[in-house]
Write a structure and sequence with these properties.
361 residues, mainly beta, Immunoglobulin-like, Neuraminidase, 6-stranded mixed β-sheet, disordered N terminus
Length: 361
């Protein structure tokens, strides 16, 4: 995205999180060497989702109970443990990403100590490589800094950004054959529009740094009907028919309640090598999340449950041929009435019907 300004993203995984849920009594976080019980691996841990590993722990003093908590789930418990022990950690039931692993030691009088670690779980899937096959093209307004593209009941809608801070953020219904705006509604200067999606005839439009989501009725000439607040940046939007799905420029994707815009759950997007950051414009196609990766010519196909990257669509040749004077590829939309998929980009003068194919070797 981000709008003539390249922002260096820092994924903060440093520090440890003090675990509070599930336990009463006093919780004390102490240096690892002084803890009543500790993990025997150094610092943090990395593994692959389908590869169970053995983890050793050591009890340093008499305990009533010892538990291993992965995120919010207790995965191992010992009563009155002593000495060194091990357990089999199977990451298969969990999604990929960086998670918290906590060894919680309870003394006989009830005081609780924790040894907090981070676990990075990589995907076991090597993504399948596909390319873009252009089928036909249609006019697209080269003045549109495309941030979101969406079909609803055969009608095409687009959301734009405002890199010049001139009040050019808008949502519009677009005539696919001519590229013209049939109707549109804009936001004032200072509001940078990002992704859009449509659920139950309501169009959702997020903003980059204003922490606002605006909603419009697509049945009444894009009338503004409401707004929500959220924390952080907004990049891309799509929906799975029940939840609004939002990217924020990191590897994180958030599922939100369409009635309150509150967080329902999050996933982290990883392939077999690590996190995929700069996730931008989104589309939900055939049960999977498709995401433009900003500053690349790649679209990734994501499992919405685990966050694993299943496919990587290399659009390099497609972009070289079709970008023209425009900027990055950004805009994926599937017309459910026809089953056709369309791509465009920021300031592109065409929108393309495409399909995804295996590369010719």
């Amino acid at each position: 995205m981000k709008k003539y300004i390249i922002v260096g993203l820092i994924v903060f995984v440093g520090g440890f999180l003090l675990l509070k849920p599930l336990f009463s009594n006093k919780i004390i976080d102490v240096p690892v060497k002084d803890s009543p019980a500790v993990f025997l691996f150094k610092e943090h841990l990395a593994t692959v989702r389908n590869q169970p590993i053995s983890i050793e722990v050591k009890v340093n003093e008499e305990l009533e109970k010892l538990e291993v908590v992965f995120n919010d789930s207790i995965i191992q418990t010992w009563t009155k443990p002593k000495g060194k022990m091990s357990f089999n950690f199977d990451p298969s039931p969990f999604g990929v990403g960086t998670k918290s692993l906590n060894l919680v030691a309870t003394l006989q009088e009830g005081t609780t100590f924790t040894d907090n670690r981070l676990v990075r779980i990589l995907s076991e899937i090597i993504p399948k490589k596909l390319t873009i096959n252009e089928l036909q093209s249609f006019p697209h307004l080269s003045s549109s800094f495309t941030q979101g593209l969406e079909f609803n009941k055969g009608r095409l809608f687009e959301g734009t950004g405002d890199p010049g801070n001139k009040g050019q953020t808008l949502v519009a219904e677009v005539n696919l054959k001519t590229g013209e705006h049939l109707q549109k509604l804009g936001l004032q200067a200072g509001y940078f529009g990002e992704g859009i999606t449509i659920l139950n005839d309501t169009l959702f439009q997020i903003t980059w740094q204003n922490q606002k989501c605006y909603t419009y009725s697509v049945a009444s000439d894009l009338q503004l009907v409401g707004e929500y607040n959220y924390t952080g940046e907004g990049w891309g939007l799509c929906n799975d028919g029940s939840s609004i799905i939002m990217s924020d420029g990191t590897e994180r994707i958030t599922f939100r309640d369409p009635k309150s815009f509150t967080t329902e759950r999050t996933i982290e997007v990883y392939n077999h090598e690590g996190p995929i950051i700069n996730l931008n414009e989104l589309e939900f196609i055939n049960g999977k999340i498709y995401a433009n990766v900003w500053m690349t010519n790649m679209i990734v196909v994501i499992d919405p449950i685990t966050g694993q990257v299943l496919q990587e669509l290399d659009a390099t040749e497609f972009v070289i041929i079709n970008r023209g004077a425009g900027e990055s590829l950004n805009g994926i939309a599937k017309d459910k009435t026809t089953g056709k998929i369309y791509l465009t980009g920021k300031y592109w003068n065409k929108i393309y019907e495409v399909d995804f194919v295996e590369p010719v070797l």
